[in-house]
Amino acid sequence: MNVIDDNNLLMRKVNCKLDILSRPDGSVLLSQGDTVVIAGVYGPIEVKTQKMLINKASVETFYRPKSGTPGIGDRLYESIIQNICETSLVSALYPRSSIVVIIQEMQNYGGIISCAVNACCFALLNSGIDMKFLVASASCALDDKGVFHLDPDKLLSDKAKANFVFVFDNIAKRIIASHTSGSFNLAQYEEALELCKKACDAIFDFYKTKMKNEIANKV
Amino acid sequence: MAKQFKSLHPIKFYRDYLNQNVRPDGRLLSKFRPVIVNTGSIATADGSALVRIGKTTVICGIKAELAQPKAEKPKEGFLICNVDLPPLCSSKFRPGPPSDLAQVTTRFVADLILNSGCIHLRDLCILKEKLVWCLYADLICLDYDGCLIDACLLALLTALKTVKLPSVDYDVAIDKKVVNEDEKKSILIYNTPVSTTYAIFEDKIITDPTAEEEDLSSGLITIVVKEKELCSVHKPGGSPISEEKLYDCIQETIKRADLLNTLINTAISEQTH
């Protein structure tokens, strides 16, 4: 996936396989470089009484790390993914029910939040649930010399001065989520935003071609 | 009548107010609530601060203990933050294990301290591989009325600036520690990250939202700045916004940071007098 012809500004290879699990309504295995996650969506399904909302579906997200039980860091990812799902789904169509999104981390080699968000969107798309818009996420890193690296791997992002993760919608290309670490100035933030926006366009194209192929194969 | 209308149609109630460019509490959309900072509130702690943003109240106490450093980082001390949201502060929280919000805030605040580099963990080292300071920063919310992160960060930074650590003589050979309580020194704080929170309500941005406004809003943005540099632009999902609006919020935060910095410094200088 070439975004701009420059080695730093190249995304790692994105690959995906749909319908890999039989029980969920939608499932996907998504890899971005060496980072791999599985996402599964159940919904709309029956909801626990205490979580029932009378005007919309309650969206529950679970992020499972590769090993062990989810820690405090995973809760942060979980809350970001949950907020993104809540805004992208038309939950008002499914009152008194629940939509469950499960993300299982398989391998983390940098950019796990981006990968999880993209997998989550793919799984929702695969499940056929109503959505207001699609979402795509990209990350980039700023190194000590002030050079940007799109979609950095673990080595690059550990060394970087700052890391950025952005999530955009596919209609107006507006910012849904922004998560950063490290310190930077406003100009650098603007540059990172533009860079990730371009990368997200490439991901939206990827969604389109992948779904097209998938449907063509089924027919 | 307004009361009944508010409980029956809360969103419409707010929309009607915001269309007149005013909020139910009388503030304009871009107006902040008054902030109160008090230092040295807990005499038994090594450093402490109490912060109020409007009605939101957070108290921070820092306790220093001697500890052995980790083998992989022999020269670094520890700073362990914990945000507690007891059931007393809002009906949203129940007794029991920490809620998701408490965990997410804890993590976010700890990340910020690390990212901003406002404290160097190396400064907490007493003797390499043997003895370091471990600072436990406990943040307890006494009244939850929105902008939790802002209040927590402000309380934590103010408390860190008031920490005074005694000097320690350590004899490795016989593993004997002598703590000189009379010789107390402050720790170095390299910069002061401060944050402001904004809520998105339909197509409007509301500054410094209360808990009620946070619940009704469709998304929150928290921006952290330190000395004209950005530390974090945190928007954990919620409804999409355009770049221009986000940049406006950032500019606003940079302006606000000066005021908050002065506030912290005044509070600390008043304590020493």
From TrEMBL, chain A:
Q: Does the keyword Nucleus apply?
A: yes
Database matches in InterPro entries: ExoRNase_PH_dom1 (IPR001247), ExoRNase_PH_dom2_sf (IPR036345), PNPase/RNase_PH_dom_sf (IPR027408), Ribosomal_Su5_D2-typ_SF (IPR020568), RNase_PH (IPR050080)
Q: Which residues form the Exoribonuclease phosphorolytic domain?
A: 11-129
Its domain of life reads Eukaryota
Keywords of the record: Exosome, Nucleus, rRNA processing
Query: What's one GO-annotated cellular component?
Result: nuclear exosome (RNase complex)
Pfam families (UniProt xref)? RNase_PH
Q: Record's Gene3D superfamilies? A: GHMP Kinase, N-terminal domain
User: Which SUPFAM superfamilies would you find in this protein's record?
Assistant: Ribonuclease PH domain 2-like (SSF55666), Ribosomal protein S5 domain 2-like (SSF54211)
* Entry keyword Metal-binding: no
Biological processes annotated in GO: nuclear mRNA surveillance; poly(A)-dependent snoRNA 3'-end processing; rRNA catabolic process; rRNA processing; U4 snRNA 3'-end processing
Chief place where the protein resides: nucleus
Compartment list: Nucleus
List, in alphabetical order, the Gene Ontology terms for molecular function in this entry: RNA binding
User: Sorted alphabetically, which CDD domains does this protein's record hold?
Assistant: RNase_PH_RRP46
Record PANTHER family = EXOSOME COMPLEX COMPONENT, EXOSOME COMPLEX COMPONENT RRP46
Can you tell me which family this protein belongs to? Belongs to the RNase PH family.
Q: What is this protein called?
A: Exoribonuclease phosphorolytic domain-containing protein
Provide the species name.
Aquatica leii
TrEMBL record, chain B:
| Domain of life the protein comes from | Eukaryota
Task: For this UniProt record, give its keywords in alphabetical order, as a comma-separated list.
Answer: Cytoplasm, Exosome, Nucleus, RNA-binding, rRNA processing
Q: What does the entry give for GO biological process?
A: exonucleolytic trimming to generate mature 3'-end of 5.8S rRNA from tricistronic rRNA transcript (SSU-rRNA, 5.8S rRNA, LSU-rRNA); nuclear mRNA surveillance; nuclear polyadenylation-dependent rRNA catabolic process; rRNA catabolic process; TRAMP-dependent tRNA surveillance pathway; U1 snRNA 3'-end processing; U4 snRNA 3'-end processing; U5 snRNA 3'-end processing
Task: List localization entries.
Answer: Cytoplasm; Nucleus, Nucleolus
Q: Which Pfam families match?
A: RNase_PH, RNase_PH_C
Domain (Exoribonuclease phosphorolytic): give its ranges. Answer: 32-166, 192-251
Give a yes or no for keyword Transmembrane in this entry: no
Q: Name one GO molecular function term.
A: mRNA 3'-UTR AU-rich region binding
Q: Name one GO cellular component term.
A: cytoplasmic exosome (RNase complex)
Protein family per UniProt: Belongs to the RNase PH family.
Descriptive protein name: Ribosomal RNA-processing protein 43
Native source species? Aquatica leii
